[in-house]
Amino acid sequence: QLIGVLVPHPAMRVSCLLPFAAVGAPPNIIFIVADDLGWNDVGFRSHQIKTPNIDALAQDGVVLDRYYVQSVCSPSRATFMTGRYPLHHTVTDWLKPGRANALPLNETLMPQKLGEAGYEAHATGKWHLGYTQWEHTPTYRGFKSFLGFYGGGEDYFTHQAGSGFDMRNDPNETCGKGCSQVAAERKGEYSTHIFSQRAVDIVEQHDVSKPLFLYLAYQAVHAPAEVPASYRDAYNATIEDPKRRTFAGMLSCMDEGIGNVTKALRAKHMLDNSVVVFTTDNGGPISTSPGGDYAGSNNFPLRGGKHTIWEGGTRGTAVAWAGASTGLLDTSLRGRTTPQLMHGADWLPTFCALAGADCSALPLDGVSQVDTLFSNTTAVRSEVFYGKHDDAPEHEVNYDTAIRDAEGWKLLQNWGGLPTGWSVNTSLGWECEAAPQCTPKPKTCCPNNDLIVGGVAATSEAECCEACTNTTGCAGYTYQSAAQRCYVKHTMVCQAGECSSGSTASLGALLFNVNSDPEERHEVSSSHPDVVQRLTARVNALRATKVIVPGGGEVPDPDCPQYKPAEHTDPRVGEIWEPWCEKTQAQLV
Fold first, then answer.
1. Is 73 one of the catalytic residues?
2. Residues lower than pLDDT 50 in the chain
3. Known catalytic residue: 253?
4. Which residue in the list 88, 89, 122, 128 is annotated as catalytic?
């Protein structure tokens, strides 16, 4: 049984999660995506933030322990939708507003395959897969309706994203110019309430003779840190840090919305024949994350956060639940944590298997995890390719990327990106980032490029590392133990020698075993050269399959003009974000 307990709030209908009669196979599929959720945020991990509905899914379903996503939002969402790694679907970084980049139209998306199997597919929330042309928007890509925003982030109340308003109502399939509506009437409404209520409406209006695919992609808990005061104030007595307190309110509000959706499914006699999946799109940003998008999330005890390919940026929180009438999840297997390896690319083939859809012709990187998730069979995935972090210098031969295998060996080519430190536990009601550790390399000297001429005295290499982390612009250090001298560097150009050098980045390949060392504190490449060689060869083989598509995720469409905000306005809200590049059918990519 699935049971949730909610604290009522006047802005949303109160809900609970209860069992009810089945409607038959195939199952409804409810795919819920949180934005920027940290490893240590949901209630069943943090024991600080109240998420009774997510906790109920976990207690009666399956928690995914070794589940991976991409380091930022657009790549993860494209991977969910296509079942492919970013280097194949081309969306390797978050998509910027007004640039002619989008998930290519030759990619087949999840709602299209489920639609072929008879599903009614609807979406609400965040899109962030591009909107260069109308053909890139959700209702041209398999969804029968969409209420939400096309871009990556905005104000929760005003729905302003930079200079433009971004909230659309696309009520029909292929709802482009002349059909898509600027949802100006939503200005002032909190987005989590908008998307939760839209999901409830979709369920209530659904024709139960067909299975439902609902994609509920929340803006929460992405920055900016905004929430109605009543949600935040519920934590006044328990969370001291004001940012974490606001974040807690944002997460509780989303959890309440999830409960309202499950209540609507129960009332419609659909829940018992549904599969509900809850996942984050990436790890949470932490206080030193680049881009200033920290909103209070916490990844304890993992290293790094959003934007990085450290575990804190890519090891995702996820839960899968199945109603009794699906016949998928035996009572004896409910409430467990599964250690089998899984990646966000696996959702499309998993949903295809549940729906009876034929996805065999698709060039997938994902694999079906139906038996692994619901029958606890042996692992079907032997590796995870992390891709690159979002400030990796791809022009270099060994740009920063990573891979791990089923035994836990994780190789990073160079390093994992910023931030590189560790969150601390939130049990006392506060959050901060622990100081980063340096990655030492013995027998390595890095001459020249000193930030402090002549160096500084240091009685140990640890003291030298501390000097580096406390010096603005420090990229690393060289330590001469005989002279007890520390040389702090702004650039690392190294060679073999009788020194020890280190960096908050690295000086070459890094190797960790994230099964035994999930916090990535013990770098062991020097003692396992065979593993380094094997995984390096595998990474390079994968990188050789990379795809480039003009107008895709990396290379802007050269045939599309620059977006001019002044040419895209609505009399009620001013400048807006919308598709702007018109092409003939033959020109579409």
1. yes
2. 1-23, 395-396, 429
3. no
4. 128
